[in-house]
Amino acid sequence: MLRIVHGSDIHFGRPHDPAMARAFLEATLERSPDLLVLSGDFTQRAKVAEFREARSWLDGLPRDLPIVVTPGNHDVPLWRVAERLLSPFRNYRRFIHPELDRVTRVPGATVVSLNSAAPRRAITNGRLGSRQLEFARRAFDASPPEDVRILVAHHHLAPAPDYQGDRPLPRARQILEALESMGVQLVLGGHLHRAYIGNSLDVHPGADRNRGIVIVQSGTTTSRRGRAREQEKNSFNEIRVEGARIEVEHLMHFREDGGFRPFSHHVFPRPPFSWLGQDGTAAPGGGKVA
Ligand SMILES: [Fe+2]
After folding, report:
1. Sequence-distant (≥ 6) Cβ neighbours of residue 252 within 8 angstroms
2. How confident is the model over 219-230, as pLDDT tens digits?
3. What's the chain's average pLDDT?
4. Residue 75 CA to ligand 1 centre (angstroms)
5. What is the domain count for the chain?
6. Which listed site, 91, 120, 225, 278, has its alpha carbon 20 to 30 Å from 1?
7. Is the peptide bond prior to 272 cis by the omega test (within 30 degrees of 0)?
8. Ligand 1 mean position to 9 CA, how many Å?
9. pLDDT at residue 163 above 90?
């Protein structure tokens, strides 16, 4: 079984809650995951002091734990306009990771993390470009067929289902179709500051309406800026991939209870879909096809 802990929107700076960061670290250690994914917004204003704190917190995680990181829109300067235009990722590269688009391989999974922050083209929203999708395609083409293929990006590809706005990435539908053609099974992100756990078929039928991609957004794990249903709340996800199942547990922090506790549990099928025929049509009676 592959176990992933997925948190997001750490936001060192004014919104950061150190007690929550400690609680999250404790919860992560308890689960001893194979992989930790942190899907962007390590800082509030991309200041050196904030990045230093973020680095020191990351250094407190177990040395042998593989970690996937990706930048968020708060990891580039907002008001320092010259820096935003000329070297927006300088501090991120120096303190968090030198690469913005990355491939991480662990036994059973190929993870491509793409930088969706677009400081020259968007303030809050982001972009994913065709070169980045080609980068992802090459990485997935080279991955073992049995691997679960995971894409990580800070910005979301499906709208939050709560009528609060927050437009998804431009070209989200085309991006989902491209990811579907690459065999991506799981997309992890943040940005919304509340969780959303669903399937791409909820928002876009795509080319293959039998499959779809599991979409997992994390709330803000350690900041005081939870939004909508997670206002004043913090959350993260535990994802377990085993055989033909992807299980996602959404955990929220309850102060009264002193820790992160399971709040909802989701189970999705993953390929090979044993109840589908060779040609992708449903097998008679939904039974297993030999
Ligand atoms: Fe954020």
Report:
1. 219, 230, 233, 234, 235, 260, 261, 263
2. 999 999 999 999
3. 92
4. 9
5. 1
6. 278
7. yes
8. 5
9. no
Contact between 175 and 160 under an 8 Å Cβ cutoff? The reply is: no
CATH number at residue 81: 3.60.21.10
- Distance between CA atoms of residues 147 and 138, nearest Å: 15
Average pLDDT, stretch 271-276?
63
Which tokens belong to 95? 């303190």
User: Which residues are CB-neighbours of 74 under 8 A, at least 6 positions away?
Assistant: 11, 40, 41, 42, 43, 44, 45, 46
pLDDT digits (tens, 9 = 90+) for 96-154: 999 999 999 999 999 999 999 999 999 999 999 999 999 999 999 999 999 999 999 99
Distance 65 CA to ligand 1 centre (A): 24
Ion ligand 1 nearby residues (CB, 5 A): 9, 41
- Provide the pairing of β-strand 109-113 with 148-152: parallel
Q: In the structure, what pLDDT confidence band is assigned to residue 275 with cuts at 50, 70 and 90?
A: low
Q: What is the largest CA-CA distance in the chain?
A: 63
Over residues 247-261, the pLDDT tens digits come to 999 999 988 888 999
Tell me which residue has tokens 């990351």. 58
Cβ burial of 1 (10 Å; 0-12, 13-18, 19+) is: exposed
pLDDT of amino acid 134 = 98
Q: Report the predicted TM-score, pTM, of the whole model to 2 decimal places.
A: 0.93
Range of the domain at 166: 2-286
Q: Is 199 helix (H, G, I), strand (E, B) or coil?
A: strand
* Residue 201 CA to ligand 1 centre (angstroms): 25
